[in-house]
Specification:
about 400 residues; alpha/beta; TIM Barrel; Beta-Lactamase; 2 domains; eight-stranded mixed barrel; seven-stranded antiparallel sheet; 12 helices; about 25% strand
């Protein structure tokens, strides 16, 4: 390959959900095909038959062009640059990283630059060193394509990124539900705890946009708004579109929450009725007539104040109750719904109808997604009820 191959940058906007503005751009390498059509240069950089030094030189050329153009942009947006940490061996001095030199020559505020780590297979020590240097000079660091391989968690723990960009394939799979959706939601929770921001890439449809909001992502990027283009765009170009989608999300979630609140209240009323029935001897056949299945109640059982299960599981299915004594003497004191209830009781002894609800989990016996509700039955016993959630 001739190292003079013509490559040039295109810029794909990244939008902020909260204000509807374009807040940044990702610089992407482009080239012309034999018909002079603009195509991605990605396959070029992944071609193992091309000398890596030539690829490094081409990458730096595109980077310089992108920064040169970005230097003329008079707003507060940021620019993300894709950099492979495996190329660090081509740097003569780590104290003189080419990107830092370019920023100095172009007089660009380094706080407006984000370095995207693009490679999953890399030496962690080298990765930590290069990110330390970038941060020392005021740049932020992002992990690109989270979910495209198996080493991302190690990278997250090693470099504590400022931004995580979710891999397009993972995001699209997650938008359809299933375990991929759970992974993205867990990632969103992780980001909130660590102060790391989430960017969802590859957003092409309204539903994918709404899923991104549901996951807590503040920044979205994709063809729904714009493909990568040669020029920067008006920062307000998509504000009305984003506002419309945000309102659609708000109305949908408000309706969902209202339905959920009504369902929860119905479940709580049923459990309070069950609590009253359990004060004395109870008849399972009579309980079976209560339409537990409509409320999603799967089973109930009793524990003592130390968390030891004192009753069998009373499982409800097909309008019948079945007892399962296999969990008697199991201790659930380490579960959050149990010790949370006990701690609240110590703080306030008067509320005997207080509910504590667990997080969602997959029930081992039925494979249903459930939550556990706990409530004080009497001074010696606690009632626990497993319910099926959506």
């Amino acid at each position: 390959m001739d190292s003079t191959t013509q490559l040039f940058p295109y810029f794909q906007p990244i939008v902020d959900i909260a204000n509807g503005r374009i807040v940044g751009y990702e610089a992407l390498a482009r080239q012309y095909d034999e018909n002079r059509q603009v195509i991605s240069a990605g396959p070029l950089f992944s071609d193992t038959h091309i000398d890596q030094q030539n690829l490094v030189e081409l990458d730096r050329s595109v980077r310089w062009q992108a920064l040169e153009k970005f230097a003329e942009l008079n707003d507060k947006s940021y620019l993300t640059l894709n950099i492979s940490p495996s190329w660090i061996k081509h740097v003569r001095k780590l104290s003189q990283l080419p990107t830092l030199t370019m920023l100095e020559q172009l007089n660009i505020d380094r706080q407006r630059i984000i370095i995207e780590i693009t490679e999953t297979q890399c030496d962690i020590d080298s990765l930590q060193e290069i990110t330390r240097i970038y941060r020392k000079h005021g740049l932020k660091v992002a992990i690109d394509d989270f979910g495209s391989g198996f080493s991302q968690l190690e990278r997250v723990m090693s470099i504590h990124p400022d931004i995580i960009k979710i891999d397009m394939r993972l995001f699209k799979q997650a938008a359809k539900g299933g375990i991929a959706s759970d992974i993205v939601h867990l990632l969103s929770r992780l980001s909130k705890r660590t102060g790391c921001r989430i960017v969802c890439e590859g957003v092409e449809t309204d539903e994918e946009f709404l899923f991104g909001l549901n996951c807590g992502a503040q920044f979205l990027q994709g063809f729904l708004f714009s493909k990568a283009q040669a020029d920067f765009q008006d920062e307000l170009k998509y504000q009305r579109h984003i506002s419309s989608l945000r309102n659609k999300f708000f109305n949908r979630k408000t309706t969902e929450q209202n339905d959920k609140i009504q369902r929860i209240n119905k479940i709580k009323d049923m459990i309070l009725r069950l609590k009253e029935q359990l004060q004395d001897d109870f008849n399972l056949n009579e309980l079976a007539q209560w339409n537990f299945e409509e409320t999603g109640i799967l089973r109930f059982y009793l524990c003592d104040n130390d968390g030891a299960q004192t009753s069998p599981n009373f499982n409800f299915a097909q309008d019948r109750w079945f007892t399962d004594p296999s969990k008697i003497n199991y201790n659930w004191s380490w579960r959050s719904y149990f010790y949370h209830l006990r701690a609240l009781e110590q703080a306030d002894h008067q509320d005997m109808n207080r509910f504590v609800t667990s997080e969602r989990y997959k029930d081992f016996d039925t494979d249903a997604t459930c939550k556990t509700l706990s409530i004080r039955l009497d001074m010696e016993r606690i009632l626990l009820v497993d319910i099926i959630t959506d």
